[in-house]
Amino acid sequence: MSRDSVVAQPLVKRPPSRLAAGWSMAISSVFCSSVATPVARAAILNGFNPNAMLMARMVLAMTILSLAMLLFSREHLRADRSAVMLAFLAGILNGIGTTLYFWGIARLDASMAAMIVSTSPLAVLSLLALRGERLTYRHALRMALALAGLYLLIGPGGAVDPVGVLFVVCAVFAFSVQLVLLQWYLVAYSARTIIFYQILGMTVVALFWWLLQGAVWEDPGAQGWISVIVLAVFSTFGARLLMFEAVVRIGGGQVSMLAPVETLLAVIWSILFLNETLAPIQWLGGVLILLSAMLAVRRINLRRRRPRWRISARL
C-alpha cells in the first residue's frame, strides 16, 4: 500500500521551470513510494515481525515529521477541532489499511500485492457514488476490467494464499474510505496539517496493535534497521513531502496520473531484487488491473471542479 494525500490545486499557467521542478518532485515521490512494498516484503522474509516493523517505521516517520513541523511549519499544527479529529480518523483508517497490507505481503509476493492495491482508484469512484457521483457504463467497464484482472492474477494458478488476498483487499477498502473522507470534509484545510494528524493516527494504530500483540521485539539486525529507515525516511516522510511540493507546482490532477507508474515500479523492483516471477496469464491480469486504475484516475481528474485530494493510497 499505501497506500495519505494532499490538496490538488486548480489548473493555472505555470512557468516551465516550475513545471520541470514539479514533475521532478512528483517522479521522485513515486519512486520513494514504490520501494515500500518490496523493501517491507524483503524484511519480512528475513524474519522481521510485520507488526514490529510497521511500529518502528511509523514512530521514526512521526518523529521526523514532528521535528520538521516544529522547526519549519509550526503554524500548520493548528486547526479547528473537527478538522483535527477527521484527519486523525483518516489516519486511523490508513493505519488499519497499512497493517492489513503488511499482513498481506507476509503471505503474498510483493508484485501481486502491489497490483491488487492499485485497484484503489476504482474503489474510491465506487464510494464517491454514495455522494451523488453518477455510475455509468464506463464505470461498469472499469469494474469488469479490474475483476477480470484480479481473477487472472490470483485465480487460475490456484497457488495464491487466499488469506493474504483477503488482507490486501480489506486494505484497499480501508485506504479508499479514508481517501473519500478527506475529499468530502477536508479539502479546504492545509495539506501539511492534515498529513501531520493523519500520520499521527497511523502511528497510534501501529503502536496499539504492536502492544496488543505482546510488544514483540527482536533486534532486526543491520538489514532490518536499513529497511525501517528506508520505509520511514523515504517511503513515508520523503514521499509525502515531495508529493506536497509537486502538487503545489503542477497540480494534484497531474500528480495522480502517476499512480499506475508507482505500481509498475513496485512490480519491477520485486522482480529484480526479490526474484519474483509471474505467469503470463498473471501478467495479463496485472495489465487489466493497471488499465482499470488508469481509467479510474482519469475519471476522477475529469470530475474535479474544485481542489481535491490526490487519489492514491500511500503505504
Strand content: under 5%
Structural class given helices, strands, pairing?
A: mainly alpha
Order of helical and strand elements: HHHHHHHHHHHHH
Largest sheet: none
Report the count of strand segments: 0
Secondary structure elements and pairings:
Layout: H1 16-34, H2 36-45, H3 50-72, H4 81-105, H5 110-117, H6 120-128, H7 137-154, H8 162-185, H9 191-212, H10 221-250, H11 252-256, H12 259-274, H13 280-302
Helix pairs in contact: 1-10, 1-12, 2-10, 2-12, 3-9, 3-10, 4-8, 4-9, 5-12, 6-8, 6-13, 7-13, 12-13
Defining key terms:
single chain, 315 residues, mainly alpha, 13 helices, globular, disordered N terminus
Summarize the structure in words:
The protein has one domain. The N terminus is likely disordered. The protein is mainly alpha-helical.
Summarize, please.
The protein is mainly alpha-helical and 315 residues long. It has 13 helices and no strands.
